[in-house]
Amino acid sequence: MPEGYCVKCKAKKEISDGKEEIMKNGRRAIKGKCPTCGTVMFKILGGKAAPAPAPAPAGEEKKTENIPG
Question: How far apart are CA 1 and CA 26, in angstroms?
Answer without folding.
Answer: 21
